[in-house]
What we know:
mainly alpha
Amino acid sequence: MTALLYISAAVFVxxxxxxxxxxxELTSISESYYLLERKHKGLGWIFTGWCWVEALxxxxxxxxxxxxxxxxxxxWACVGLAFVGVxxxxxxxxxxxxxxxxxxxxxxGLSVLIIFLMGYAPCPIIAIIIATILMVYREKKWLxxxxxxxxxxxxxxxxxxxxx
Length: 164
């Protein structure tokens, strides 16, 4: 189970680093879909695959470590991330924009809530403070830093929990 957590975290870091190396600082993680489609002719499916790998590797670990009364939140947090991946065309298709937004909000919100309820409130608080500072200096990149703060705080809390 623990291996899945570390695989998920490694895949997250590898994807973000690769996308930033290829395209520079993104405005959001989802922007990578369009950049992969446009600049690399049809490779947008990599974004969808990334979302699914993240969701499918994180779900079993979250279900294992979450208390019984929070397992439904773990399930829906990962389902939300999978929805983000299946609805990447936020600029072209109105329904996909809705599905993408609902999935992202559900995934991010529930992940942070799980971390708070598990007793790791400092992780998202510190991540959001750092992200806010970066948002001030990178005005058009605020969504990217908010997304990264959500992922980093979740992985940090889960890794700390695992090391206990």
